[in-house]
Design a protein that fits this description.
By secondary structure, the chain is mainly β. It has 8 domains: about 150 residues, Immunoglobulin-like, CATH 2.60.40; about 90 residues, Immunoglobulin-like, CATH 2.60.40; about 90 residues, Sandwich (Immunoglobulin-like); about 90 residues, Immunoglobulin-like (Sandwich), CATH 2.60.40.10; about 100 residues, Immunoglobulin-like, CATH 2.60.40; about 90 residues, Immunoglobulin-like; about 80 residues, Immunoglobulin-like (Sandwich), CATH 2.60.40; about 40 residues, no CATH class. It has 7 helices and 58 strands. Strand 31 and strand 32 form a beta hairpin. It is elongated and about 210 Å long. About 20% of the residues are buried.
Length: about 850
């Protein structure tokens, strides 16, 4: 028999004791209904209180009509162990109970008898054990039943209701609350801390089926909410749950920042940073979505090899041209995500990939091509040695530029190639990143060509001439000289033939186009022909080698001007010259009294560009002249002698203006006409309203050939007259109108000669100072060398004359020891270095 004390431990854990009590053995029937939640326990007592009846007259019947049996003693003991927390034998207990005392639903239904009472126990109610449980008895032959209809329903419970939820900032967000049960409709209620929420509050929306909508969520909406659910009809069960709500923020990308910028140079270190806000703090995901030309690509971070991601940043150690394109940053947290993009442009310095040398034949058509890459696409220009003028030539088509995926190409077409198109061409590619230049050599092949296909060369015996066959050709041409004709007749003799073979051998064997030959008696004047030939053609040059002669007689000589000390002539060259042109004239002259006495006369030579003037003549003197023309071959035929007489001394010739400089007005000293010029007279008169104001004229005497302008008014115009004066008087004047500038160039303080002289003196003083420093410091230098050399020579001369050792100090060796006394070292003579007196044994001093 199970003790009451032991069984109460079990009952305290798994059942709730009912206050209802049935009486039996009893003489009436009743029916009751009880509503129970799933999982609750059920307990009823059925009593027998009639005299003569016992519990044997009472039994409990389950809804299936089976009598409910009591637990065995062994089973109760095991339940007691479970109640005490001993779970070691729990599995065995369940296995034991299931065959005898389970309805197949997992609920344990059994009875227990104690002191006239039969107790019904159901430890855990479920819908499978719901039904009518009856306590039956018979009294005086009549069957009575106490019926208990147990209705089991599911209790209210929360589903899909987390105790920690979130709202999204700025949106209308729900707080989820869902309660389930299988009986009646539910009424939901919401509270936030001390606030009871209803539909009158515009901040919230009660949906009626559980969730609470919070409108336009702000940070203040975070907190602890309580959701409650109550059955509208029925037993009035209520369920509540607190929900902790935080306000979360969807990620928003505020900026995608590229450093040093989204336009970068290839090879640069580049970082791209994605800046976003959100709660909780978002994570970042990068991918490249388009290439540099905007074409969509399917690339992921794992496929990338040129950059890596660190948190919200991607880094390029050395960005490449192919890294250009569109990059997408995704910022995400548990409430949402946000994407934004940035376009990266990678600029690449231009590179000239193709600009090859071109070879073309004269007259052909050829195309010059320059191809360059870079980003931005470079601008290409082709120039001829930096000059684009060739593009304006009708033989050259306008340049055409074609942009490609990788750069640009420029085409220049030459329709009719000529020699002048040959040379160095420059292709320049520029795109703002850099500017590059590449050279190309345009070689034009053409047949030989002579600028001068015929040439005259003058020669004479002993003259070295240059026989040249200079021509233009590409490729180089082969040259051949031939002797065509002799000026003195055909070369029929063996001597002439040998001479020709010698001369032509010399010309043809030399490699250069020029050859220097000295004319001698073997050399023949005549016609020489040079033939040059390459695979494109042939050209010839004729050289006429003629014997040159000195000029013939001068046609005429007249005197243009004569002064007391000079004569100026006009010389007319000879009519015909068989030889080189006249290069100058020569005159021989002397006083007529002396001309026939000696053959030594004064010579005067003029070039063609010089004034034919003879100076330093004597006044009132007759001179005899003869003239001859000169060319490279020599002095020509002398004219007959001519006599000219100088006049008496007179006033000077008028001065001539020289270029003004350094703020001075300058002039050239004129011919003095026998007597030297002793001074100049300069007169200067100002202009007023373009009229000379003679009342303000000034006059000065000058010995120099210049007049300083700083004494005159600046920006004023003057009329200036200048005359020269000698013993005979004043020359005619020369006139000049001069406007004095606002600023005059200052004359140098020293002349050029004075500056050079001063420089020499300064250099000499520096050298002298340096030599003195060497003398004091190291006893070296020019002064030291001269000083010590002089003293050394003086000492050597003195010692050479002191043959008896008179100047030797006591204790020093003497030149001749026989002059000393051997007994006591007394010297016969003594020299006093202070006074310079020599004393001796027999001296009277």
């Amino acid at each position: 028999m199970i003790t009451k004390k032991g069984f109460n431990v079990f009952v305290a854990v798994v059942v709730i004791v009912s206050t209802k009590v049935c009486t039996a053995c009893f003489s009436n029937s009743s029916i009751e209904t009880e509503n129970k939640k799933t999982g609750e326990s059920f307990y009823k007592e059925c009593h027998c209180n009639k005299p003569g009846y016992t519990v044997a007259h009472i039994k409990w019947i389950d809804p299936e009509g089976r009598q409910i049996q009591p637990l065995s003693t062994n089973t109760v003991e095991k339940y007691e162990q479970m109640a005490k927390g001993d779970t070691k034998n729990k599995l065995h207990v369940v296995e034991l109970l299931e065959p005898d005392h389970m309805t197949g639903t997992g609920s344990k239904v059994y009875t227990e008898t104690e002191e006239g009472t039969v107790k019904l126990y159901i430890d855990s109610l479920s819908t499978s054990v719901a039904g009518a449980y009856k306590c039956e008895t018979e009294f005086e032959g009549t069957k009575y039943t106490m019926t208990y209809n147990i209705k089991v329903y599911d209790g209210l419970y929360f589903v899909n209701t987390s105790t920690s939820q979130h709202l999204i900032l700025g949106e209308d967000s729900p707080i989820n609350c869902e309660v389930r049960g299988n009986l009646n409709q539910l009424n939901y209620g919401w509270d936030k801390e001390e606030l009871s929420i209803d539909n009158d509050n515009i901040k919230y929306e009660l949906t009626g089926d559980g969730p609470l909508i919070v409108r336009n969520v702000s940070n203040d909406d975070a907190g602890i909410y309580k959701c409650s659910a109550t059955e509208i009809d029925g037993i009035g069960n209520i369920i509540e749950q607190e929900i902790t709500v935080e306000v979360l923020v969807k990620p928003v990308i505020s900026e995608i920042r590229a450093s040093p910028g989204n336009v970068v140079l290839a090879g640069s270190n580049v970082t791209i940073q994605c800046l976003a806000e959100g709660t909780p703090h978002p994570e970042f995901f990068w991918k490249k979505v388009a290439d540099k030309r905007g074409r969509t690509i399917n690339a992921t971070q794992e496929q990338n090899t040129t950059w890596h991601q660190e948190i919200n940043t991607i880094l390029f150690e050395e960005i490449l041209e192919n890294d250009a394109g569109v990059y997408e940053c995704t910022s995400a947290n548990r409430v949402g995500s946000y994407q934004d993009r940035i376009k990266i442009e990678v600029q690449v310095a231009p590179q000239i990939k193709y600009f090859e040398d071109v070879n073309a034949t004269e007259g052909s058509m050829v195309q010059v091509v320059c191809k360059a890459t870079g980003n931005p696409i470079p601008l290409i220009t082709v120039t001829y040695n930096g000059d684009e003028q060739f593009q304006n030539d009708s033989r050259v088509q306008p340049p055409q530029t074609v942009n490609t995926e990788y750069g640009a190409e420029l085409y220049v077409t030459f329709n009719n190639v000529t020699q002048e198109f040959g040379g160095i061409y420059l292709c320049q590619a520029s795109n703002g990143v850099d500017n590059v230049i590449k050279e190309m050599n345009f070689t034009v092949f053409y047949p030989p060509h002579f600028d001068k296909p015929e040439e005259l060369i003058w020669g004479w015996n002993g003259k070295t001439i240059n026989m040249n066959c200079e021509h233009e050709s590409n490729p180089p041409a082969k040259r051949t000289w031939t002797f065509q004709a002799n000026d003195i007749g055909p070369t029929s003799t063996a001597e002439h033939a040998e001479m020709n073979r010698f001369i032509m051998g010399q010309l043809n064997n030399i490699q250069e186009n020029n050859m220097n030959l000295t004319i001698n008696k073997k050399m023949r004047y005549g016609v020489y022909e040079c033939v040059v030939q390459n695979e494109l053609g042939t050209a010839k040059k004729i050289v006429h080698l003629k014997e040159a002669y000195a000029p013939g007689a001068i046609k005429n000589v007249t005197i243009l001007n004569v002064t007391a000390s000079s004569m100026t002539f006009k010389i007319e060259r000879p009519d015909y010259i068989e030889g080189p042109p006249v290069v100058g004239y020569e005159a021989q002259y002397d006083t007529s009294d002396n001309y026939n006495v000696t053959n030594i006369h004064v010579n005067r030579t003029w070039g063609l560009d010089r004034k034919f003037i003879v100076e330093r003549l004597k006044p009132s003197t007759t001179y005899t002249f003869k003239f001859a023309a000169k060319n490279e071959a020599g002095v020509g035929v002398w004219t007959d002698t001519m006599e000219f007489e100088t006049p008496e001394t007179s006033v000077p010739e008028p001065p001539t203006w020289d270029e003004s400089q350094n703020g001075n007005l300058r002039w050239k000293s004129p011919e003095a006409n026998g007597n030297p010029i002793d001074h100049y007279i300069i007169e200067y008169c100002p202009f007023y309203d373009q009229v000379v104001n003679f009342s303000q004229c000034n006059e000065q005497n000058l010995t120099a050939t210049e007049f300083p302008l700083d004494n005159l008014d600046k920006s004023r115009t003057y009329r200036i007259k200048l005359r020269a004066h000698n013993l005979h008087g004043l020359s005619d004047f020369v006139e000049k109108v001069l406007t004095i500038p606002e600023k005059l160039v200052a004359a140098p303080v020293l002349s050029a000669g004075a500056i050079i002289g001063l420089s020499i003196v300064v250099v000499f003083l520096l050298l002298l100072l340096f030599d003195l420093l060497l003398l004091c410091w190291r006893r070296q230098g020019v002064i030291a060398t001269c000083y010590f050399k002089k003293n050394k020579e003086k000492n050597e001369n003195l010692q050479s004359r002191d043959k008896k050792g008179l100047l030797v100090k006591e204790g020093e060796a003497r030149p001749d020891d026989s002059l000393t006394r051997p007994n006591n070292g007394h010297r016969e003579f003594e020299y006093n270095k202070t006074t310079g007196v020599i004393t001796g044994k027999h001296s009277t001093v």
